[in-house]
Amino acid sequence: MTHDGNAATIHSEVWQVVELLERLPATPTTGHRLDELLIAFDALSLNDEAARRDAETQIWAIWADHVDPQAKLEMKRAMDLCGAGQLSTAIAEFDSLIEHYPVWAEAWNKRATVHFLIGNDSASVRDVYQTLLLEPRHFGALSGFAQICVRNNAQDAAQAAFHHVLHVYHSAIGVANAVARFAEDPPNTLH
Fold first, then answer.
1. What confidence tier does 191 reach under pLDDT thresholds 50, 70, 90?
2. pLDDT tens digits, residue range 80-92?
3. What pLDDT, in 10s, does the model give residues 115-167?
């Protein structure tokens, strides 16, 4: 059973994301600091672990950045609310962020995370979908999506998400182990 509703609904929403994964472009065509992101994503494939960690940190920093200082201020306020455990109020802040900055992938991703934390899995999946439309390489959104899939017994979808994470970031911590566990104990097909 899902945390926030009907099992058929969450599975339908999950499979919409899985279908999206099959048709996503390799990189976004519009967005903030795309050249820097491309360089940082290339660095994720380096053999040097410290360089990969630095690249991941840089990617997260770019995703959290915005050209509008007001957007960054609102993001900080929403994140501070999360840190203080005021998740419902944080969602309202993220709602406002998304309303004013609808093409900011990280605003969608952060709201997806908060929805996940409070058990609103359907809302989280819908926000992951929007995140991936804007930033198809968002390994954080993909990993969160995989966790939602596992929590809702959609193991095939979780496996697809983990494989997509590895396609984007082949040395993502813990993901290769999750894929190996799926190989040892294949999931039941859910449609």
1. very low
2. 999 999 999 999 9
3. 999 999 999 999 999 999 999 999 999 999 999 999 999 999 999 999 999 98
Superfamily of domain 13-24+32-184: Tetratricopeptide repeat domain (1.25.40.10)
Our CA angle for 116, 56, 126, nearest 5°, is 25
Residue 16 and residue 125: Cα distance in Å, rounded? Answer: 9
Predicted TM-score (pTM) of the model is 0.90
What is the SS3 assignment for 85?
coil
Structure tokens given for 65: 């950045």
User: What would the two tokens of residue 81 be?
Assistant: 């609310």
Q: Report the distance separating Cα 168 and Cα 28, nearest Å.
A: 13
* Other beta carbons less than 10 A from residue 105's beta carbon: 22
Alpha-carbon distance of 147 to 161, in angstroms, equals: 9
